[in-house]
Design brief:
This protein has 386 residues and is mostly beta strands. Strand 16 and strand 17 form a beta hairpin. The chain is flat and about 80 Å long.
């Protein structure tokens, strides 16, 4: 073998081995072998971030110490960890930079008032209230009383109130929004994870009792493959007739359609993924001829005493009453007037994509894995059949 041939082979092999050197070094002397730290409360406690920031404020100031500062003039400084802060005075006005924003942590015993078109890149805490103008961009908010977002706001991480939170129309809520009392969302709001004693979507409708109607009691269902005490496992789809009632839990082998004014005294699961042939329209609003494409479809004025689960899409009609968790593995559409959960028994409503009409009420958690959207009631949209 000639010298040039040997050099060619040597260079080629060297070039092939070069990218693998870091891997060989790591294999010989591992440096990243410690298990990842998993904080359970991150997932199972919606107020995880708010509680962490409250502890941060306590550690650096004491929850009331900044209230002893002058109410006539804002005060500020730099904390030991390098974070800049500002104690907002009684007028609630924040000192802004040239671009109408602030990168400081905001603290006040008074109501903090954030101006229109402002951008606030750090956390804010107030004991008495936070009010934002229109087109505001905030990172994270904590308040011992109410938080009021103006229209077209953007929340980047989280907000928590010990009172109520009101969100203006066409806002975007990334991350978590939690309140001890009530959260109210304006129309056009995009959300991810909400948790409160009561979540009001748009304009709240009067919570009337379900209308008293005559129903037919069903002793058994068609197509039952397996009966185990109260649970009926169906071979195929469920087509539950309107104005009917059934005492038990139902598992449909494929799609499920529940007629208007039906009452199921138990839970229902639809294995809709077994029989999918159509998706909901992108907007989540269905014309009349596409209604059954929801795959698990509850009509109007349906009452479910337990949970409702669909392995694909789930469509809930107007003025339904559901007392247990509601889970869809693809898209969830909830029509106006529907109430899920109760003050005594809050529950979880969850799906990757949620479209919910103004006039609904959820008690507990409303969690969109990808995106949730508040829309006006279907009959109010031009060109869409109810």
């Amino acid at each position: 073998m000639s010298l040039w041939t040997f050099m060619l082979f040597a260079v080629t092999i060297g070039l092939l081995i070069l990218p693998l050197i870091p891997a060989f070094l790591e294999l010989a002397n591992p440096t990243d072998v410690a298990p990842l730290k998993v904080v359970q409360s991150y997932d199972n406690n919606p107020m995880h971030f708010a509680q962490g920031f409250r502890a941060y404020v306590n550690n650096h100031f004491g929850i009331n110490s900044f209230g002893d500062m002058s109410a006539e003039k804002n005060r500020g400084g730099v904390l030991a960890d390098g974070s800049k802060y500002e104690v907002v005075g009684e007028d609630g006005k924040v000192v802004l930079n040239a671009s109408k924003g602030s990168e400081k942590i905001l603290l006040s015993p008074y109501t903090i008032r954030l101006p229109d078109d402002g951008s606030f890149d750090s956390e804010a805490f107030s004991k008495t209230g936070i009010v934002t103008g229109k087109n505001c961009r905030t990172r994270a908010l904590l308040c011992d009383e109410d938080i009021n977002f103006g229209p077209n706001n953007t929340l980047l991480r989280w907000a928590h109130s010990e009172g109520n939170i009101n969100v203006g129309d066409n806002s975007i809520l990334y991350g978590r929004l939690t309140a001890k009392k009530t959260v109210t969302l304006g129309v056009g709001t995009v959300f991810e994870r909400l948790h409160a004693n009561k979540i009001v979507i748009g304009a709240e409708l009067a919570e009337n009792d379900m209308p008293i109607v005559s129903r037919t009691e069903l002793a058994e269902l068609k197509g039952v493959k397996l009966q185990a005490e109260r649970r009926s496992l169906l071979e195929g789809n469920l087509d539950f007739p309107a104005y009917s009632t059934f005492d038990g839990d139902i598992v449909a082998g494929s799609t499920a359609f529940i007629g208007d004014y039906a009452h199921i005294k138990g839970s229902i699961k639809s294995n809709a993924l077994n029989d999918v042939y159509h998706y909901l329209q992108t907007s989540g609003v269905l014309a009349a001829e596409d209604k059954r494409a929801a795959r698990c479809d509850l009509g109007h004025y349906v009452q479910i005493d337990g949970s409702v689960i669909s392995t694909h899409d789930l469509y809930i009609g107007e003025h339904c009453r559901i007392f247990g968790p509601v889970i869809a593995e693809n898209r969830l559409v909830i029509r106006k007037g529907t109430v899920i959960g109760s003050p005594e028994n809050p529950c979880t409503v969850s799906a990757p994509n949620i479209v919910i009409e103004s006039g609904c009420v959820i008690y507990g958690t409303l969690w969109a894995g990808k995106q949730g959207l508040v829309v006006v009631a279907q009959h109010e949209q031009k060109g869409v059949a109810a």
